[in-house]
Write a structure and sequence with these properties.
This protein has 89 residues and is an all-alpha fold. Helices cover 83% and strands 0% of the residues. The chain has one domain (3-87). It is rod-shaped.
């Protein structure tokens, strides 16, 4: 399994696991995956890829939440402004 394949697996895992997955659950998934694929001796390489993909995913997720929050605030401000205009305040 090359780095690109491992990244694909990581993204699938991140996108398809429950929101409230625990660190223990993630550890079990990785341990089982590595044992199943006979890749335990590649852990240093795998750890680097996992870390990079996780950090990238967390940054994207954080940015998405910030944009959604900003959009919601803008909509709320616009609604408040229009309400004031309509009510003559």
């Amino acid at each position: 399994m090359n780095r690109e394949d491992l990244e694909k697996v990581m993204y699938m895992l991140l996108e398809n696991t429950p929101e409230k997955i625990t660190s223990k659950d993630v550890s079990i998934i990785f341990a089982n995956f590595m044992v199943y694929k006979g890749m335990a001796n590649y852990w240093p390489d795998i750890e680097n890829v996992v870390e990079e993909v996780m950090v990238e995913h967390l940054i994207k997720q954080s940015m998405t939440l910030m944009v959604e929050k900003d959009e919601n605030l803008a909509i709320e401000d616009a609604n408040n402004f229009l309400e004031k205009i309509c009510n003559g305040v």
